[in-house]
Amino acid sequence: MTIYENQSLLLLNTFHIDASARYLVEINSESDFLSLITDKKYIDSNKLVLGGGSNLLFTKDFNGIVIKNNLLGKELIKEDDEHYYVKAGAGEVWHEFVVWCIKNNYAGLENLSLIPGKVGASPMQNIGAYGVEIKDLFKSLEALDMQTGENVVFTNTQCEFGYRESVFKRKYKNRYFIKSVTFKLNKHPKFNTSYGAIEKELEVMGVKELSIKAISDAVIRIRSSKLPDPAQIGNAGSFFKNPEVPGAKYESLKQGFPTVVGYPLENGNVKLAAGWLIEQCGWKGKREGDAGVHINQALVLVNYGKAKGSEIYHLSSEILKSVHDKFGVDLEREVNIYDHL
Hints:
By secondary structure, the chain is an alpha+beta fold. Helices cover 24% and strands 28% of the residues. The protein folds into 3 domains: 3-69, Uridine Diphospho-n-acetylenolpyruvylglucosamine Reductase, domain 2 (2-Layer Sandwich), CATH 3.30.43.10; 74-186, Uridine Diphospho-n-acetylenolpyruvylglucosamine Reductase, domain 3 (2-Layer Sandwich), CATH 3.30.465.10; 234-338, Uridine Diphospho-n-acetylenolpyruvylglucosamine Reductase, domain 1. It contains 8 helices and 20 strands. Helix 4 packs across helix 5 (212-226). The longest helix has 19 residues, at 309-327. 41% of the residues are buried.
């Protein structure tokens, strides 16, 4: 295990922010991690576990140790009449893992194709797309306590999943190093094509026989047409969460804005489309220096070149204010903000 000093994080975050870390270490095994947390030199350092760097924004340099999780491995650990139980190392690339599952006919993750990041981040964020969330397929995860090194297993219930939420984003933020995640996938596919434009895309593709591969291909085509490739232009995907409002608030909004986009929820609330709200405030395609709002998707903030994290954060603050002023709706950032001095 090698610990590097004063390392640039430019190539380790999809926003392409040129921040640096006081220390950087790559963890390739559990013993690497245990060696790190017992090293007296780093015990009191701020620690940040980094996967694919696809859901964070550095607004300043990180005055601590960035821990890059490289734990790999994919395996079928058991099966029953209805399900496959598949375990993946936290450092596996998420989309590559989804493709592997599809090739093996492990059904359930196909709607989550092309989401950037690593497997370990999927339960932290409770990632979701096109009507599917990780909580629907999550069995358990294995983690190490960042202070004691103790092995801990979290079940679905213990993760306390919410909309882009889990205990790892709030109550246990920076407390656990996720080693692996186990998913409960289906032997008999339950096709989910009603959300978004999947059905229309399948028609365009000329798909006659539905399969998890066809749904994955459709999702990839849709995402590729709407979202910028982080390899080409810096971004972290959707920057804001879709806000949830009471049904009465939604009806009130419809009086003033008849085309407002909302999705009724079982609890009587309505989930609004944050992208629509932002677009109505005139932000879509807008640019302030090298920080901007993507021309095809108002939910996505982008770095056109050498934007600072603080500039993108400032732009997001302006968007939050304008949506609140126009609609009386408070948006929340989905991206994690890191601003350690």
